[in-house]
């Protein structure tokens, strides 16, 4: 199993409309057949600690049964459409791919 964690830094971090538009777009990725689960969210108010990064505006955490399934997701037309329609909303994207042990 693999977890694909993505953190979006918004171009307009104070825009609730931009944040909500991106969240709606991310939710649509659950329709891709290789996505086992999807969680979308925003930074949690867990306190100001040096090790906590709250510089992102929206995150998505997806799981896949295999690296191959994640690869199918990457080139899937719905994923490519999501990028094309929403990339104007973010200034930076950071991805962490984790293999389950």
Automatic annotation (TrEMBL):
Q: Which Pfam families match?
A: Dabb
Q: Name all Stress-response A/B barrel domain ranges.
A: 2-98
Protein name as it appears in the record: Dabb family protein
Species source reads Novosphingobium anseongense
């Amino acid at each position: 199993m693999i977890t694909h964690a993505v953190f979006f830094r918004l171009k307009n971090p104070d825009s609730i409309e931009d944040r909500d538009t991106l969240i709606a777009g991310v939710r649509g990725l659950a329709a891709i057949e290789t996505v086992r689960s999807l969680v979308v969210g925003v930074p949690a108010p867990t306190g100001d600690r040096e090790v906590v990064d709250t510089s992102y505006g929206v995150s998505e955490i997806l799981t896949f049964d295999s690296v191959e399934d994640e690869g199918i997701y990457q080139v899937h037309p719905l994923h490519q459409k999501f990028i094309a329609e929403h990339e104007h909303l973010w200034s930076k994207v950071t991805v962490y791919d984790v293999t389950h042990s």
